[in-house]
Amino acid sequence: QQEESMSPIIQNTKFKLRIPFPVKEERYKNASLAKIDFLTENQEKKLKAWLEDPRNFLYCQSVYGVGKSYLAAAIAIFFYEKNFPVYMFNEHELFQMLHAEEQEGRLASWKIDLICGNNIVIWDDFGSTLTHGKNDFKDNEKKELMFQFIDSRYNCMLPTIITTNLEVQQIGDLINPRISSRIAATENLILEITGNDKRQEGK
Questions:
Q1: pLDDT class for 133, splitting at 50, 70, 90?
Q2: What pTM was estimated for this model as a whole?
Q3: Each residue of 18-37: b (16+ CB within 10 Å) or e?
Q4: Of 122, 114, 99, which Cα lies nearest the Cα of 22?
């Protein structure tokens, strides 16, 4: 009965089996949408509508510490409990994995294609590793892989959750205007979240 209310894009996938728990970080393993207290009433309404018919991008942007990663984990668990496959990662973890692929003689772009084949994908902390020189990838290599991911997910219209500290315009300036153009498309949901740094409040 739950599946009947979900997006046809999700319903028609072949992957209906329960997959390993999508949230790796211990801090977020009990994340729940019921505990989200930093969205406005209008944002809560829009998020609820998106969750009932998930497709295209859900772009969550705020300053540090407001709760974006917690929200991403809560969404992952929400879908997991409905037996819908979720692939969730943060950016640092992704580029570590892509570097390991290249060390094994495989192309990072090949791994991105595999990731894009999942029907629900969550990229946490989008853009956070740029300018840091981490993971043995140069920024221009990262940017091309990021565009490959965004372009693929945009074209297939599958539900994709992005959390980031970067505003859409900053994405265009820092990474690639082709990325910001796709994210800013009218069919996507952009949540610009305000609030205090919960880490500093001891929450």
A1: low
A2: 0.86
A3: eeeebbeeeebeebeeeebe
A4: 122
